[in-house]
Write a structure and sequence with these properties.
Helices cover 35% and strands 11% of the residues. The chain is α/β, with parallel strands linked by helices and 488 residues long. Strands 1-7-6-5-4-2-3 form a seven-stranded mixed sheet, with helices on both faces. Strands 10-12-11 form a three-stranded antiparallel sheet, covered by helices on one side. 41% of the residues are buried. The structure holds pyridoxal-5'-phosphate. The site of pyridoxal-5'-phosphate (PLP) has 14 residues, from helix 5.
């Protein structure tokens, strides 16, 4: 007799009529007729084919599904540019404190001084870390911060010159959200080529920088993981023509405590609390993309702005030049609490150490793996390093195959095929929270995959071989996702 393996079985196959996962006491109030309670056509008494299960069956189903996932609590997650680092549990405890978690966002200022105090303090810390004093915590993600920042730049130019200008310059290595945000704000995007060293070409910038240009949007360190070392000259060129420099601060974990964008001429930037300051993201939780800016841009911050008065902290809505509200209430306050707890736990020396370790770890991987994988920009990098599949291509193996094979060895794949200027890019960001043993394990696995590419390329084509599901039609999964169960 074959024994069925039920581990793969989905909840819908475990149904049995009449099974229940709850038991309620007998009703002791009159039954309310459903009729009329909801608009016609919206009420239903049963769902065809809906699974009927015991509590044990239900719990096992969801718990089993959770074990099919990979997460930062399971292992290294070297997803370049996304900074998927460990989220300390202490931060979770801070975010769950009843005084914060149960506070209604419409509680008047006098009765929510504690929550306002945390927001005010975090804003001050971010100002100190970046050297940019005007802060909003409202945006819900990095891309949302970009949009907010570009709206502020536009409003500022209109106020200053009566003309928002037409163009935003963006390097060819930029994250796709940068041109999208600029375009959304009504700007034409003009691309600037990177130099052979992987940084913005200063001569190309000087040529493109006219008085039609509202801003340069620049990521620093850039998406090749390289610090834009001519950044002061870059800022000078943009400012000389009356433009502003928007810094995409997604990679700030390479700089925290070591360099302040305000000091190297950046006018406005967003920070991803869910990257640099360890708050959860991806499937783990909502994001937070505060914007920090020079004093001159303060009038344009979204309302309300939390201000200190002799009577205490209050939310200030009376800001006539503000771009308006960009998110309900105060943004994702739970993330503010976590980031605050993170910064306070580490303190100034700890914060510096995060940047040091992020950079050290990424350089360690570059040097350890460069004999096996092409490193298109083989120079001192910051928090992430780009490899390519150039050598493996000779055996018919691609970046996708390498990424999929990593899953078999227990690693989440790195970011692939980005930045676009590197053919077959593998963008590896180990982050500061990985220790030497895990980095060495990653190196060994990558070396073994390089060996497999030479000796058993077909194996890599079939990877992953150890997961419940193997290769998906990724285009269909992205474009036609099945998000709801329907009876066949
Ligand atoms: C360089 C860069 N800019 C912007 C973003 C957008 O940030 P978010 O995902 O928080 O919207 C990302 C995200 O990966 C990024 O890596």
């Amino acid at each position: 007799m074959t024994i069925p393996d039920r581990r793969d079985e989905l909840i819908f196959n475990l149904t049995s009529p009449g099974r229940r996962g709850y038991s309620l006491p007998a009703r002791d109030v009159p039954e309310t007729p459903l009729e009329g309670a909801l608009p016609e056509g919206l009420a239903r008494e049963s769902v065809e084919g809906f699974p009927e299960l015991t509590e044990v069956g239900l719990v096992r189903h969801f718990t089993r599904l959770s074990t099919w996932n990979y997460g930062v609590d399971t292992g290294m997650y070297p997803l370049g540019s996304c900074t998927m680092k460990y989220n300390p549990k202490l931060n979770e405890a801070a975010a769950r404190m009843a005084g914060f978690a149960a506070l209604h966002p419409l509680t008047p200022d006098q009765a929510s001084q504690g929550a306002l105090g945390v927001m005010y303090a975090l804003a001050q810390m971010l100002a100190e870390i970046t050297g940019l004093p005007a802060v909003t915590l409202q945006p819900a993600a990095g891309a949302h911060g970009e949009l907010t920042g570009m709206m502020m730049i536009r409003k500022h130019l209109i106020t200053r010159d009566g003309n928002p200008r037409k163009v935003v310059l963006i390097p060819d290595s930029a994250h796709g959200t940068n041109p999208a945000s600029a375009h959304f704000c009504g700007y034409q995007v003009r691309e600037i080529k990177s130099s052979p060293r992987g940084t913005l070409s200063v001569s190309a910038l000087a040529e493109a920088m006219t008085d039609e240009v509202a801003a340069l949007m620049l990521t620093n360190p850039n998406t090749l993981g390289i610090f834009e070392e001519e950044i002061c000259e870059v800022a000078r060129i943009v400012h000389a023509k009356g433009g502003l420099v928007y810094c995409d601060g997604a990679n700030m974990n390479a700089l925290v405590g070591r360099a302040r964008p305000g000091d190297f001429g950046m006018d406005i930037m967003h920070l991803n609390l869910h990257k640099t300051f360890s708050t959860p993201h991806g499937g783990g939780g909502p994001g937070s993309g505060p914007v920090v800016a020079i004093k001159e841009l303060e009038p344009y911050l979204p309302t309300p702005v939390i201000v200190a008065t002799p009577e205490g902290l209050r939310r200030d809505y009376e800001r006539p030049l503000s771009v308006g509200r960009v998110k309900a209430f105060q943004g994702n306050f739970g993330m503010v609490l976590r980031a605050y707890a993170y910064i306070r736990t580490l303190g100034p020396d700890g914060i510096k150490a995060t940047a040091d370790n992020a950079v050290l770890n990424a350089n360690y991987l570059r040097v350890k793996l460069r004999d096996e994988y092409d490193v298109p920009y083989d120079r001192l990098n910051m928090h992430e390093v780009i490899f390519s599949d150039h050598r493996q291509n000779a055996h018919g193996v691609t970046t996708l195959d390498i990424a999929k094979r990593l899953i078999d060895y227990g690693f989440h794949p790195p970011t692939v095929y980005f930045p676009l200027i590197v053919h077959g890019a593998l963008m590896v960001e180990p982050t500061e929270t990985e220790g030497l043993e895990e980095l060495d394990r990653f190196v060994e696995v990558m070396k073994r995959i390089a060996e497999e590419a030479r000796t058993e390329p077909d194996l890599l084509k079939k990877a992953p071989l150890t997961t419940r599901r193997s290769r998906f039609d990724e285009a269909a999964a992205a474009r036609k996702p099945v998000l709801r169960w329907k009876k066949e």
